[in-house]
Amino acid sequence: MASLVGVVMGSKSDAEVIQSALDVLTSLGIEHEVNVISAHRTPDKARKYAQSARERGIEVIIAAAGMAAHLPGVLASWTILPVIGVPMASGELKGVDALYSIVQMPAGIPVACVAIGSAGAKNAAYLAAEILGLKHDKIRHAYEKYRSELQGTS
Questions:
Q1: Alpha-carbon distance 72 to 69, whole Å?
Q2: Most buried residue, 77, 83, 112, 147, by most Cβ within 10 Å?
């Protein structure tokens, strides 16, 4: 089966935090792919990735980046797929700069933004599941099951 979610990180150093998103996607049975693409070091690769994502079956992109955090916005500029930005806690500002960068997209090129770090990575995967659940019954049922299990915890 083709991957439905493209998970892109700006640097290999983001892998540990992004693993939280990958674990959620796997637990919900959502096929995904993972790539390291820098908006600054490999801009042409970012463009090609975003432009080809839909034809490859990707329906949602999760993009994690720190500091200037241009990756989610750059990918969003090249595709009409939903892009969820995950700000990474890096640099002197510990992710606040990345958060501000992602949430300040210009009108017309939206990027959803979640919390900084691992909690944000998990929520990006859950948000992707909600989006995909509108079309894919199996994913919706898996997500509904997860949510019902949350009610039993406090």
A1: 7
A2: 83
Euclidean distance between CA atoms 81 and 136, whole angstroms: 16
Which pLDDT belongs to residue 45? 97
The continuous run of DSSP H or E covering 124 comes out as helix 118-133
pTM for this model (two decimals):
0.95
Question: What average pLDDT score do residues 111-123 get?
Answer: 96
Sign of CA dihedral 51, 133, 37, 103: positive
- Give the count of alpha carbons within 13 A of 129, CB side only: 26
Phi first, then psi, for residue 130 (nearest 5°) are: -60, -45
Could you read off the pLDDT of 9-21 as tens digits, one per residue? 999 999 999 999 9
Instruction: Domains for the chain: give ranges and CATH numbers.
Output: 5-149 (3.40.50.1970)
Count how many Cα atoms sit within 13 Å of the Cα of residue 103 in the half-sphere of its side chain: 11
Among the residues of the chain, which ranges form H helices? 15-27, 43-53, 71-77, 96-103, 118-133, 137-150
The pLDDT, as a whole number, for residue 153 is 63
Tokens 């674990």 sit on residue: 23
Cα separation, 128 vs 4, whole angstroms: 9
